[in-house]
Design a protein that fits this description.
The chain has about 120 residues and is α/β, with parallel strands linked by helices. The protein is built from 5 helices and 5 strands, in the order ββαβααβαβα. A 5-stranded mixed sheet has the order 1-2-3-4-5, with helices on both faces.
Length: about 120
């Protein structure tokens, strides 16, 4: 599966993403973590790209819905993404960095501990 809800620790949900991400895979992983989000009240998200190959157009249409983004942003404080440099700009555009309530930062492979520290700060 290209997107997996991996764990929650100290208010941080971890998602591991590989391959090409499709809307149904994203939504399945999101719903798996959504219960934890509601229990925590507000959370941070760590996304780890592991062999990531991009998004399908169906996913972009699904999450670019302003209602989806607004509903989720009320629950999310920060989003950190760890992945190859080539995915930085597309990820920041996809996550609407600077246009949403949740802060979004991108980290390169090997910087997972920095990403976690940023989420905890």
């Amino acid at each position: 599966m290209p997107a997996v809800f991996e764990s929650v620790l100290d208010g941080t949900l971890v998602f591991r993403v590989s391959g090409k991400l499709h809307a149904d895979d994203f939504l399945s992983a999101w719903h798996a973590g959504e219960e934890q989000i509601r229990e925590e009240g507000s959370i941070c998200i760590l996304v780890i790209y592991d062999g990531f190959e991009g998004w399908d157009d169906d996913l972009i249409g699904e999450v670019s819905n302003p209602g989806f983004m607004e509903e989720q942003d009320d629950l999310i404080e920060k989003i950190a993404v760890v992945g190859e440099e080539r995915w930085r700009e597309p990820t920041e555009l996809f996550m609407l960095k600077g246009l949403r309530k949740a802060a979004v930062e991108y980290f390169e492979p090997g910087q997972e501990s920095l990403a976690r520290a940023w989420l905890e700060a």
